[in-house]
Amino acid sequence: MGKRKTVKEIFKMKKNDQKITMLTAYDYQFAKIMDRSGIDVILVGDSLGMVFQGHSTTIPVTVDQMIYHTKIVVDSTENAFIIADMPFGSYQVSVEKGVENACRIMKETGCNAVKIEGGQRVIPLVEKLILAGIPVYGHLGLTPQSINKFGSYRLRAQKEKEAYKLIDDAVLLEKAGVSGIILEKIPSILAKEVTEKVKVPTIGIGAGPDCDGQVLVITDLLGIDEDVNFKFVRKYANLNDIISGSVKNFISDVKEKKFPTEEESY
């Protein structure tokens, strides 16, 4: 059995200028591979609504679905620190409802922390969760759960007023007790300023090289969806072509009676 990373160890990585690695996972196979490969943190993101369920946004994802996928990831790993997203509707109604849902997620999955989108408006919830002994990660910049408010996935905090607001929100989240902050799709210079201003680790996605760590959606990194071409995504493989080619070869071999052979039969 491995020894799972802790909040303190992730904090120490920032202090020692060691970059933090984070990827998303939603199932047994990918989670196991990532864990054995040495990933620091696995985020069970509500991005599963888009990359796993095929929705156009993360909005439809439920608490029960997050619990289902997070428990699988926790049970499939030994070393990585596991963060679970609080999905849309699980904390917006009231602080009490947010605490109740966060407790459910922690209790029923065994994850190490939850992640919440937003700044000043979620501070009362963050404080309550910290008092309840639940580690919390913040999420600023592009917040996918607010897609219906903003109408696009464009770069955030380009204007001075929005940039100052993001910095203020980061400071407020730190004071409220978060264990780290995800910075998504904001200018590099702003992400650098936030990273230098707060003592908690920052994890960037489309936020430049100066964050304390980086996160990507696993299917983007592996090039599974050929339609995903975000500027900030580096595709380390092209599994779309490999998988498609393998399926086509299987179809061809079966149709042409080349599979199975005698050696592949009992």
Describe the structure.
- By secondary structure, the protein is of the alpha/beta class.
- It folds into two domains: 7-235, Phosphoenolpyruvate-binding domains (TIM Barrel, Alpha-Beta Barrel), CATH 3.20.20.60; 239-266.
- The protein contains eleven helices and eight strands.
- It has helices spanning 7-15, 28-37, 48-51, 63-75, 95-109, 123-131, 147-150, 160-176, 188-197, 218-221, 239-255; strands spanning 20-24, 41-44, 81-85, 113-117, 136-141, 180-184, 202-205, 213-216.
- It has an eight-stranded parallel beta barrel, surrounded by seven helices.
- Helix 9 (188-197) links the parallel strand 6 and strand 7.
- Helix 4 runs parallel beside helix 5, helix 5 packs across helix 6 and helix 8 packs parallel to helix 9 (188-197).
- The mean pLDDT is 95.
Main pleated-sheet profile: 8 strands, parallel, barrel
Outline type? globular
The share of residues in extended strands comes to 5-15%
CATH superfamily of the largest domain: Phosphoenolpyruvate-binding domains
What is Rg? 20 Å
CATH class of the largest domain: Alpha Beta
Placed side by side, the strands forming the largest sheet appear as 1-2-3-4-5-6-7-8
Portion in helices = 40-55%
The H-and-E topology, N to C, reads as HEHEHHEHEHEHHEHEEHH
Mean pLDDT: 95
Runs with pLDDT <50, length 5+?
none
Number of strands: 8
Report the total helices: 11
Domains, number: 2
CATH architecture of the largest domain: Alpha-Beta Barrel
In CATH, the topology of the largest domain is named: TIM Barrel
N-C termini distance = 37 Å
User: Strand pairing plus helix content: what structural class?
Assistant: alpha/beta
